[in-house]
Amino acid sequence: MASPDPQPSPSSQRPMKERLRRLWSYFKQYRAGWVLAIGSTVATGITEPAIPALLQPLLDRGFTQGELPIWMVPVTVIGLFMLRGLTQFAGQYALARIAGEGMLVLRRQLFDRLLTADLTLFSRQSASQLANTIVYEVQNGASQLVQAVITAARDGFTVIALLAYLFYLNWSLTMIVLVLVPCVAWILKVMTRHLYKVTRQSQVATDELAYVVEENVLAHRMVRLHGAQGAQAERFETLSRRLRDLALKATRSSAATTPLTQLVASVALSTMIGIALSQGQSADGRSITVGGFVAFIGAMLMLVAPTRRLADVVNPITRGMAALERGLDLMDSVESEVDNTSGAEQVPQRAQGHIELRDVSVRYRDDAAPALDGVSLRINAGETVALVGPSGSGKSTLVNLLPRFVQSSGGQILLDDVDAKSWPLAALRAQFALVSQDVTMLNDSVAANVALGASHIDRDRVLACLEDANLAAHVASLPQGMDTVLGHNATELSGGQRQRLAIARALYKDAPVLLLDEATSALDTESERLVQQAMRRVMVGRTTLVIAHRLSTIEHADRIVVMERGKITEQGTHTELLAAGGLYARLQNYAG
Ligand code: ADP
Ligand code: MG
Fold first, then answer.
1. pTM for the full model?
2. Residue 467: which domain range?
């Protein structure tokens, strides 16, 4: 994997207050939800001491003196639990709703960033990393965080309510409980910090592990052919071990938290029982009734479970925050494409297709030779220009410059005599159709793939395009014709069929400039003949830039431009170049 890029200060390095405020901004919109959530969690917490409180009079008077009517007991108990059921349900629902709304906004923002991101993002991050962050991490983060907040809020209020009740019953005993709280809080604080760090590390390691699997799925044939299984297994093993160690590290700190807090609690608990017993035996009027004592012990024991849950709540909160923040970090690290949206009046709806490059250079990396080095080239409207040259000579870079998939680091590119940087991106890109070696099809119907980007699918036109692309017969044989859904990246189509589908897509777009980047390189001769035929149809009346590996396919171009190490070394017609006896002639000889 590429070395990690320096990202603009990741969330974990910023102050906690700022981080919380940032997260809060996503979850604060749904006001009514917060009112309901807080109201019902408070109510749930407050009704908790009602159970021991009911017990006390019952024990002190109810059974022995019969002051209370019998029917009141079940009515009160059932009523109490109905109320608690209602508030618990409402609280849980409201918080889930808050999480849902926040996640919706965050996800949409992330996906919008993906759609408008500067294209360098896609060489920095793999598809699986991006999918993982946008889909899974946001979801896990939000649901873990909210689940934890639900627990923390309900148990927090429960603890407060129970403590208040304990104070009311016997303040001196309750003081001991208060010694307990700071001890537990301190333990939690230390553990949280450690856990957060480990959690971040293990998320990064998980990503890397997934990346190894992805790579080995994609490259399974090459790995076997080269006998690289051993090295790959070792790579996987190393990462797996690191992940295991991190998981154990995280478990050590989270698993130690509960026993430690319980130990502190048990010491306090036994002291309290001792004091309660001595008070009960004293004859100074402060003695505790049987009901009071049972209620106190009951409420105290009820305190243990929510306190323990509160101690455990730290883990999902830190995990959830870390996951959500990785989404935010992604958003911060991504720059948007530079666009001149105000330039719409200066440019034509449909370009003539006249292209000019003036001394254009492209550098992908500062430490490498430029991919294009001072290239100047004029292409007339309607002309077919072929780019030829050894691999790595910059042909694809030149083609990718035109729809601004690649940014030039020097020089000027003009379409219809207007600087490409003055064109609004959308208007500029509307002028180009591209067929490359690695066309990607979307998991949608044939018709939707052909009419990609169109607001309305013109079925007659789709059919005509499929016919011109030599694909109509095959599509007709599919179960639902052009409405057949292709599946992920249309894997059931052959290479030639996919290429022809891409050509149909280019035909449908009907753009004035056509870019063909090794559109036939991966095909066998038979498929190539069909694709060639289709390509010749699509080239009619358009400015065409064609890169082809097989020189036979470009002999008929109006002009052939030969490139070498990012420079144009010769140009002319097929016959002229053969006569000149340069690189083109030599390449022809190899091919022959
Ligand atoms: P061609 O299409 O003629 O084979 P390219 O235009 O693809 O050549 O590549 C020209 C040079 O730029 C090569 O040295 C290649 O390694 C480099 N290059 C191409 N794309 C990238 C990229 N996204 N990041 C870094 N270097 C790149
Ligand atoms: Mg190329």
1. 0.72
2. 350-591
